[in-house]
């Protein structure tokens, strides 16, 4: 299936969770990343059970003093 990660279309396996995508994308300091799927923030404690669907748009963000920035 295809999803969009940080504005880039990517193919991932059916059943891919947010936790698995974090590993696939080699996200730096995953314990501090905030993830949004289709514009909605996902709680970190649900990363392992949040299954992505065809067409989902995923963003990884780090919140810092004064704002946030994407990792890509």
The major β-sheet equals: 6 strands, mixed
The helicity comes to under 10%
Low-pLDDT residue intervals, each spanning 5 or more residues: none
Write down the oligomeric state.
single chain
Please write the string of helix (H) and strand (E) elements: EEHEEEE
Overall mean pLDDT: 90
The overall strand count is 6
Q: What best-fitting shape do the alpha-carbon axes yield? A: globular
Question: What gap, in angstroms, lies between the N and C termini?
Answer: 21 Å
Broad structural category: mainly beta
Per DSSP, what share of the residues sits in E-state strands of 2 or more residues? 35-45%
Number of helices: 1
Integer-rounded radius of gyration: 11 Å
What does this structure look like?
The chain has 72 residues and is mostly beta strands. Helices cover 10% and strands 38% of the residues. It is built from one helix and six strands; from the N terminus they run E-E-H-E-E-E-E. Strands 1, 2, 3, 4, 5 and 6 form a six-stranded mixed sheet that branches. Strand 3 (34-37) and strand 4 (40-42) form a beta hairpin. The model has no long low-confidence stretch (mean pLDDT 90).
Short description:
By secondary structure, the chain is mainly β. The chain has one helix spanning about 20-25, and strands spanning about 1-5, 10, 35, 40, 55-65, 65-70.
Please write out the topology.
Layout: E1 2-5, E2 8-11, H1 18-24, E3 34-37, E4 40-42, E5 57-64, E6 67-70
Parallel strand pairs: 1-5
Antiparallel strand pairs: 1-2, 3-4, 3-5, 5-6
Task: Please give a handful of descriptors for the protein shown.
single chain, 72 residues, mainly beta, 6-stranded mixed beta sheet, 1 helix, globular
């Amino acid at each position: 299936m295809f999803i969009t990660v940080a504005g880039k279309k990517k193919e991932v396996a059916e059943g891919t969770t947010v936790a698995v995508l974090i590993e696939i994308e080699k996200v730096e300091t995953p314990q501090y990343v905030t993830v949004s799927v289709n514009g909605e923030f996902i709680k970190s404690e649900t990363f392992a059970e949040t299954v992505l669907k065809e067409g989902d748009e995923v963003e990884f963000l780090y919140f810092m003093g004064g704002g946030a920035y994407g990792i890509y």
